[in-house]
Design goal:
Length: 267
């Protein structure tokens, strides 16, 4: 299956695109080669691929945390200025990376404090973000008092408190048990639908990518590149009924077969 064509960057629906991006690290490791990806405004797109294929590297390049060795990252006109663009990006890492000495409220407030947001405005936005992830009764709790799933909710709230246009998520639920992971999948989809934030979600789980995404970009093994894009046309909101449906099972099989071909080098 060949890569699907996507609209050019100048389409009003396109937020960011990677064009022929390659990344070689100083030790000689080539993480990415010829990576092309276009992300449209308001969509939920997953990067799916085997461990070590450069998914996280691609995310860091989009975020501006790493520079490509070759190729370009192109942004829509509305996000042209670098400083403004970085202010509109939220990033959720694999680990919550919370400050252990700060409570939930203060952890979520950190980006606003760094941006010197007025105290009254910041407090209102923090309260809204904490409420959005269902932790309003834990606002004064410390990370050591929270479960793994709750700590990840705090990390998501911290990323959302700046009301980002683009939310980048690097396997945020990989270390959680299945029940907690399912619950956070559902919560994240509800937040995405309510906020209409664009999400790029890195995962190595076929099941998670199919359940969450509107589109899946399947990556080949290192050096990573997108070899296939799959549209997941199932309507939102998605629920347990979808997760147990024949349609979901068929989509998972198709996606799994596509991933297996990518890992074998067949594209």
């Amino acid at each position: 299956m060949s890569q699907l064509s996507v609209p050019v960057l100048h389409s009003s629906s396109t937020l960011v695109a990677l064009r022929g991006v390659a990344k070689t690290f100083p030790n000689g490791t080539q993480a990415l080669a010829g990576l092309d990806l276009e992300v449209r405004q308001g969509e939920f797109v997953s990067l799916l691929g085997p461990s070590g294929c450069g998914k996280s590297t691609a995310l860091r390049i989009i975020a501006g945390l790493s520079e490509p060795t070759e190729g370009a990252v192109e942004w829509a006109q509305s996000a042209n200025k670098k400083a403004e663009r970085h202010g509109r990006i939220g990033f959720v890492f694999q680990e919550p990376t919370l400050m252990p000495w700060a409570n939930v409220f203060d952890n979520v407030r950190l980006p606003l404090r760094l941006a010197a947001a007025p105290a009254k405005e910041a407090a209102a936005r923090v309260e809204a973000a904490v409420r959005r992830v269902g932790l309003e009764t834990f606002a004064r709790a410390y990370p050591r008092e929270l479960s793994g799933g709750m700590r990840m909710r705090v990390s998501i709230a911290r990323a959302l408190v700046t009301e980002p246009e683009l939310l980048l998520m690097d396997e945020p639920f990989a270390a959680l048990d299945e029940i907690t992971r399912f619950a956070l999948n559902d919560d994240l989809l509800r937040m995405w639908q309510a906020l209409r934030t664009t999400i790029v979600f890195v995962t190595h789980s076929v099941f998670e990518s199919v359940y969450m995404s509107r589109r899946i970009a399947v990556m080949a093994k290192r050096p990573g590149r997108v070899v296939t894009e799959l549209a997941i046309d199932a309507p939102y909101p998605r629920s347990r009924d979808f997760r147990t449906s024949a349609e979901y099972g068929d989509l998972c099989r198709r996606t799994s077969d596509t991933l297996a071909r990518a890992m074998a080098g067949g594209g």
